[in-house]
Amino acid sequence: MVQIIPQPVIGVQQMSDYILEMKSIHKSFGSNEVLHGVDFRLKRSEIHALLGENGTGKSTLMNILGGVFPAGSGEILLDGVRTTIASPADAQQKGIAFIHQELTLINDLAVYENLFLGNELKKGGFLDVAQMCQRSRAVLERMRVDLDPRTLVSELDASYKQIVEIARALLRNARILIMDEPTTALTEVEIRHVFAIMASLKEQGVSIVFISHKLKEVVEICDSYTVMRDGHNVIAGPVDDRVDETLLAKHMVGKELSDDELYCPRQTGATVLEAVGLTREGEFRDISFRVGKGEIVGFTGLLGDGRSELFMTIFGCNKHYSGEIYLNGERRTMHTTTRACGCGIGYVPRNRKENGIIRDMSVLQNTSISIINSLKRLLFIDPQKEQELTAQFVNDLNIKVNCVDDSITSLSGGNQQKVVLSKWLAANPQLIVLDNPTQGVDVGAKLEIYHIIMKLAQQGMSVIVLSSEAQEVLKLCDRIYVMYHGEIRKEFQRAEADAEKIMVVATGGVVA
């Protein structure tokens, strides 16, 4: 069994109640001061939520703790003793592990190979596979996980991959785990699995910093919380009966947030998109549905239900399918994305960092790229037209950016998502597909995106929302299709749908 590094014996009088204290941390990048004297304290054996909108300084604070870069000023205490953290390797030696939102596992390697990558055990000049497997089993057993260390990571679902990341940290004797948005890509069932692991580790003395925009999860799993806003501390305290999602959201954005008036009834028009018997082997089968003009239609279910594959096929990403696709009553064959765009379909993909933004381009270029040909004057792009187009969307979608020539990566996640949306809106589609449109964005930006979606529908655009969050489709949609194992199992009208019914159908059950 892998043991936690014993805490240094400092003496009863000196031993702090906190395993970690960060005091008056300042950090600037050039003239931009990101952290303004931030304090953060983490108790032993607790799960502590670190909250704030995107761009508020949470990641900077945790990167300082993880040794990615130094603080400008302030001090860090571990077990009550002042320390410096010079590098990620130094942080690791001090028992601090950072598990990032984008997992760093290698799919083509086995679990044990990922756990020992860079720290392989050898015997007589050869890799000691037996010993690495034995130690891997020990750390997985400590987490109460039944998993063969020789299993390829590519065969694991998302929750097990997250668990392997945690196991790698524990194998290196981590006492403090920083978990950045660990449940973003997980289904409800997988989230339960990860939460069980977190609770087990807390019992064993591990302290966890939990960074998440899902406030319901914070209230459920965390013992305490700290809220940051604009690089300052706002409030910190225990998660008790007085703390709920509304209170946390209010502290994060500095005002009351309400989506009570979000949904607006509308008169919808004729069918814009209709699918009849769509099938693609191994992904989805016999899919039939329709979407009217100005209608918001949701598709939900568990991860792997086939909804993304279905709409990637409709968008022309997959050539081989059977069934029929109709646009405005006319049958169309969607074999290329160019054809789908030409038919007036836009698609905002699930993972904006991999498929939505072009990281090496500016905000301006990311906004205009979908209609670059229409911005040309002779052989060159008309810079004035490009600037005017971008300025329009910055204003209309309330994109927070200092300069449109700044890199897209300089924006917060919510503002990046708005840029991706503006790229497709610039093409003036009649129908837009939004795949997990608020994944990884904070509560304020999420509500802004919801209002944008509702406004588009009011203007007559047809909107399809693909989401794993039942509450998201319940807030926005006129109708909801629930998928299970590649099939549509139930269509709900807005008035009859609720989260419990959706979950029953999404897990293979039946409701009246």
From TrEMBL:
<dbReference type="Pfam" id="PF00005">
    <property type="entry name" value="ABC_tran"/>
</dbReference>
<keyword id="KW-0677">Repeat</keyword>
<dbReference type="InterPro" id="IPR003593">
    <property type="entry name" value="AAA+_ATPase"/>
</dbReference>
<feature type="domain" description="ABC transporter">
    <location>
        <begin position="20"/>
        <end position="255"/>
    </location>
</feature>
<dbReference type="GO" id="GO:0005524">
    <property type="term" value="F:ATP binding"/>
</dbReference>
<dbReference type="InterPro" id="IPR017871">
    <property type="entry name" value="ABC_transporter-like_CS"/>
</dbReference>
<keyword id="KW-0813">Transport</keyword>
<dbReference type="InterPro" id="IPR027417">
    <property type="entry name" value="P-loop_NTPase"/>
</dbReference>
<keyword id="KW-0547">Nucleotide-binding</keyword>
<dbReference type="GO" id="GO:0005886">
    <property type="term" value="C:plasma membrane"/>
</dbReference>
<keyword id="KW-0472">Membrane</keyword>
<dbReference type="InterPro" id="IPR003439">
    <property type="entry name" value="ABC_transporter-like_ATP-bd"/>
</dbReference>
<keyword id="KW-1278">Translocase</keyword>
<feature type="domain" description="ABC transporter">
    <location>
        <begin position="257"/>
        <end position="510"/>
    </location>
</feature>
<dbReference type="InterPro" id="IPR050107">
    <property type="entry name" value="ABC_carbohydrate_import_ATPase"/>
</dbReference>
<dbReference type="GO" id="GO:0016887">
    <property type="term" value="F:ATP hydrolysis activity"/>
</dbReference>
<keyword id="KW-0067">ATP-binding</keyword>
<keyword id="KW-1003">Cell membrane</keyword>
<protein>
    <submittedName>
        <fullName>Ribose transport system ATP-binding protein</fullName>
    </submittedName>
</protein>
